[in-house]
């Protein structure tokens, strides 16, 4: 995909469109699939991609965006690690005249004109789906149901949305009790660690784990097994993302359900980038459609999974 320009001698120069993308990190299977989707879609569309990994640190993302501005890229896109703190750097992009696309995670900003569009999932709805599934699962049980929540990254939009949506469904049902929540940055190792701590303090009182992503759920599975309980039977596990490894765990009976969050957003991003270059306007919000999968569907669905 090309952009035409005229140089100082008024000669036409044709360059590939350059997209600077600042990625969150490489914390999960979801993220790996998302990065691959962006890289292959850029190649397929002939867009030159400058890809930068922020290792889960906002300051690295701010630096990356500043370097995209310095390199005079055509478009900047990023998946913001956390929701707040983007005013300054996005104002710098605006002054440089570079359009910005927010992808995957959302930002919380007053001046909505600082980005063109936000492409990504509805995290609150994912949380509601998880909550509704749990309600259905436990509605006939007697006594209270104790839930621990493995949250993602503090201040990130998927964490905020997934907590909020789940709570909205669960709260009116007072027999379901949230007995603890901890942040595990969407990483398997941290999911395991925080689950170990929950088991140490709460032990057999835990009936349900609600994990904000599959990697942390898989870490929790290990912790529960090492503790001598059966994940998926002694403790119900609800997760989000629906990556292949979670399907494998569902087939083995160790995760009960996973809400889909589709990482294959590269083609949508390139489509948006091309529209912007053509001067077309875009909707402020582009939502990715998603489903939910439980153990009974895992075997038949696994061969269809792309990530
Ligand atoms: O659920 C998690 C990843 O931002 C939606 O980030 C994404 C989340 C995803 O690390 O696995």
Write up what this structure looks like.
The protein is of the alpha/beta class and 307 residues long. It has ten helices and 14 strands. The strands form three sheets. Strands 4-3-5-6-7-13 form a six-stranded parallel β-sheet, sandwiched between helices. Strands 9-8-10-11-12-14 form a six-stranded mixed β-sheet, sandwiched between helices. It has a two-stranded antiparallel ribbon with strand order 1-2. It is elongated and about 80 Å long. The chain starts with a strand and ends in a 6-residue tail after the last helix. Residues 27-28, 30-31, 104-105, 158, 186, 213, 240-241, 261 line the site of beta-D-fucofuranose. Keywords: Signal. InterPro entries: Peripla_BP_I, SBP_2_dom.
The backbone outline, from C-alpha atoms, is elongated
Terminal CA distance reads 27 Å
Average pLDDT figure: 96
SSE series: EEEHEHEHEEHEHEHEHEHEHEEH
Proportion of residues in helical segments: 40-55%
The total of beta strands comes to: 14
Which hetero ligands occur in this complex? Answer: beta-D-fucofuranose
The biggest beta sheet is recorded as: 6 strands, parallel
Low-pLDDT residue intervals, each spanning 5 or more residues: none
What structural class do the secondary elements suggest?
alpha/beta
Beta strand %: 15-25%
The value of Rg in angstroms is: 21 Å
Please state how the strands of the largest beta sheet are arranged side by side: 4-3-5-6-7-13
- How many helical stretches? 10
